[in-house]
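User: structure tokens for this one?
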Amino acid sequence: MPGVVLGWDMTAALAMAGALGIDARAAAELLPVIEAVMVRQLNDNRASSHD
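Assistant:
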């Protein structure tokens, strides 16, 4: 579906976390949870703005 957010580039997200000095294990544990919430919220906002 055009315009729907599917997820993050986790390789890039983990690289950014590493560049910021964030522990790789913590990032690997937390990023998927954060990503799921972000994707759901963005898609909900998109759907409600097109109603």
